[in-house]
Structure formats: structure tokens, C-alpha cells
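Students often ask why inverse folding is considered easier than folding. One informal answer: many sequences map to the same fold, so there is more than one right answer. In these notes we will look at a single instance of the problem. The structure comes first.
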């Protein structure tokens, strides 16, 4: 006997529901960087710290590194082979001493990516707790002489950025000052096509039919610079999928900065609340900020004026990593923000919170807790109506104030 029309309808809608759910989960999982990419970005963030006293470029040693006569001196190629992920080659490295900026650009021909990593500074306490933290408009300053960037007028590149967007001037300066962005952009463009940078003349034959992904990375203040660079690269390559995978990043800009970054992310379908369905988009930019336990730096600076942009991936004890959509969540999509007390947690044990910020602790955690799945996290945390986001009790103010 054939089933009733009602029972067939129930089975049909049940089947349709689970198909949509499985598809949503698959798309959501695909948006997270996979385990190997996260580990590579962590290694690059660690490596760039250790290059400043050894090399001046991809193929040159620092001259005073010959002081150690009792040991055989490493060649630049040996240093990069030891510090970089497997199958990764250095395209460009520079340490601008006037700015304290270190930037490393690499290419991986197996995993098909170009990555740009920034180093943080040792003096993060001064940068994040200064009595007069200054913000400025995102992008190169008007005083910069680079009116043309990669053949395009500077004003035309950044004209789509809302005028209300403001970021920490130190982080912005780290990316754009002294023609830093122009130099990085030229190298990235060359690297994608198989070319070299840093004074090398040779040209590598690579498979350019398979597109290279663009990543930015960094730890601490370098993480902040990597997010700013990623947004700028998106303006230059709007059809590309670009991700910033960074570690221990402080807050970068105002709430308008956070809202603007949200518009650059893959589109998530609000009609299917909680599922995380991402619709196709020609290009996007997305930030994934890993936070190690009670690391103090991601809670800085100023909790009223400065806001996080992109997603928080909280690394808790025992290898438990939770993803919080846009840090504060999105009720329309059914995604939760960081839990109440997240911002205050480091102050319970401040020495431990400072120690948790070390780059080696991030790398050790990721190596020691490699997941069996393809990614450290596969879905965003969903809304629990019994809790509120930590940032909901800190509504945005109108202007920055001093952090004493």
C-alpha cells in the first residue's frame, strides 16, 4: 500500500532539510583555513622574527653575522630551508629599521599560495597602552609620494573605503609608509606569475593555470599589520579569495572598520539562520584571528573605541578551538559572539596572560593539538539565548580616549 500524501510530504521535507543542512555545513567548513595552512601561517609568523639578526634579504646575510668564528656560518638558503614550511621559498624579505617593520613574502608551489608575513615588535606594551593612541584613515597618508600604486591612481584604489573607517596609525603606517604597500604589491604580482623579487633575475616555470591563493599572516602587532594588508590587497584583487590567518592580534580600528571588513567577507545566507550557508561570490577577504587561552594582547587596546574585525578562533586548554563569527556574533545568522567575561579574563592572572602571548606558545599549541579533521574548527558557535556576548556590555563610543 502506498503511503499517504502527508507522509510523503514529511519524508520529502525532512530529506530536503538534511540536504540543506549538510550543504551548509560543507560550505561553512570550506571557508575555514585548513590545518596545513594554519600551521604554515604560524610557522611563517614565527620565522619572520628569527630572520632579523641573520639575513638582510632572501639571498644576503647581515654583514655582522660573521662574528661567530667558532661555528660554520649558515648560507641564506640554509636559514630559509630551516625556518620556512616545506616546499616554501622566499620571494622577498626586508627589515626597515626606520619603521621597525619586517615583512616576508613566500611562495609555496605545492599548496599553491603566496603569503605575506609581518613580524610584531618587542615593545608591544608601548604601542598598545600609550596614553594617546592615534587613529587615522585606512590607507596611505596623503603625504606619501606614491600617488600611483601598481599602475593605478592611489585615490581610485581606496575610494570605496567608507570615510568613517579609522585604524590605529601605527599599524596603518607599518603597511603603507615608505612605499611598503607598493613594494609588497609588486612582489605579490610577480610571484603569482612565477617571477621573483628581492633582486633575483631568474623566472620560475610554474603552473599558473591553477590559481594561487593569497594569505597574510603575523603574530602580535604583525598580526594587525597582516589584517590591514589583506584588506588593501582585496582592493587590488577584488576577484581573489584572500584570507588573513593571524595570531594574538590586538584590536585594529573603530566599529566602522569592523563593519566594513564584514562587507568584504563571503556572503552568508541570513534566511537560513544558524546554518552558516555561504553564497558564491566573485572575491572576498576574511580574517581568522587565533587567540591562545587568556592572551592579553587581543584584549587591547581601548575596549570602547577599538573593535575586532573578522572571526575569533579561541584556543582553549586541551585543544578545544571555538570559532566566533565576527567576534561579537550575528543574531540574524544565529551565530554567537565571544562569551561574557572574555575581555576581562586575562586580568585574573596577568603574568599568565602575558606569557600566553608568546609566538612559540601558539605554534606549540597548534602542533600539539592537530585535529583529525581537515581543520582546527569546522563551524561557528551558535547563539545560546541564555548568554550574551562579552562585547555587548561595551557599546561603541564616539571617539577614542586615553588608556592609562
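Output (designed amino acids):
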Amino acid at each position: 500500500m502506498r503511503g499517504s500524501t502527508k507522509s510523503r510530504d514529511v519524508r520529502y521535507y525532512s530529506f530536503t532539510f538534511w540536504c540543506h543542512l549538510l550543504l551548509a555545513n560543507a560550505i561553512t567548513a570550506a571557508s575555514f583555513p585548513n590545518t596545513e595552512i594554519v600551521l604554515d601561517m604560524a610557522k611563517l609568523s614565527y620565522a619572520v622574527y628569527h630572520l632579523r639578526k641573520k639575513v638582510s634579504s632572501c639571498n644576503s646575510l647581515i654583514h655582522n653575522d660573521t662574528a661567530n668564528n667558532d661555528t660554520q656560518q649558515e648560507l641564506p638558503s640554509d636559514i630559509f630551508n630551516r625556518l620556512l614550511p616545506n616546499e616554501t621559498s622566499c620571494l622577498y624579505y626586508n627589515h626597515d629599521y626606520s619603521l621597525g617593520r619586517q615583512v616576508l613574502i613566500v611562495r609555496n608551489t605545492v599548496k599553491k599560495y603566496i603569503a605575506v608575513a609581518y613580524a610584531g615588535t618587542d615593545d608591544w606594551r608601548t604601542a598598545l597602552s600609550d596614553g594617546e593612541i592615534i587613529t587615522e584613515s585606512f590607507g596611505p597618508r596623503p603625504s606619501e609620494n606614491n600617488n600611483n600604486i601598481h599602475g593605478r591612481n592611489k585615490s581610485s584604489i581606496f575610494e570605496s573605503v567608507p570615510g568613517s573607517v579609522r585604524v590605529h596609525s601605527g599599524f596603518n603606517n607599518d603597511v603603507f609608509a615608505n612605499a611598503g604597500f607598493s613594494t609588497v604589491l609588486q612582489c605579490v604580482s610577480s610571484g603569482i606569475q612565477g617571477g621573483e623579487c628581492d633582486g633575483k633575475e631568474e623566472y620560475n616555470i610554474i603552473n599558473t593555470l591553477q590559481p594561487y591563493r593569497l594569505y597574510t599572516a603575523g603574530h602580535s602587532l604583525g598580526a594587525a599589520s597582516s589584517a590591514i594588508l589583506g584588506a588593501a590587497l582585496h582592493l587590488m584583487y577584488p576577484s581573489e579569495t584572500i584570507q588573513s590567518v593571524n595570531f594574538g592580534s590586538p584590536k585594529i580600528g573603530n566599529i566602522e572598520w569592523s563593519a566594513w571588513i564584514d562587507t568584504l567577507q563571503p556572503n552568508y545566507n541570513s534566511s537560513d539562520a544558524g546554518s552558516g550557508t555561504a553564497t558564491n561570490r566573485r572575491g572576498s577577504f576574511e580574517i581568522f584571528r587565533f587567540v591562545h587561552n587568556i592572551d592579553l594582547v587581543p584584549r587591547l587596546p581601548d575596549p570602547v573605541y577599538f573593535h575586532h574585525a573578522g572571526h575569533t578562533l579561541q584556543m582553549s586548554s586541551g585543544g578545544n578551538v571555538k570559532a566566533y563569527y565576527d567576534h561579537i556574533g550575528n543574531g540574524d545568522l544565529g551565530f554567537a559572539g565571544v562569551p561574557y567575561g572574555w575581555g576581562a579574563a586575562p586580568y585574573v592572572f596577568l603574568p599568565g596572560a602575558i606569557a600566553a602571548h608568546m609566538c612559540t606558545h601558539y605554534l606549540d599549541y597548534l602542533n600539539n593539538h592537530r585535529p583529525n579533521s581537515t581543520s582546527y574548527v569546522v563551524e561557528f558557535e551558535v547563539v545560546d539565548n541564555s548568554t550574551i556576548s562579552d562585547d555587548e556590555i561595551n557599546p561603541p563610543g564616539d571617539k577614542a580616549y586615553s588608556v592609562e
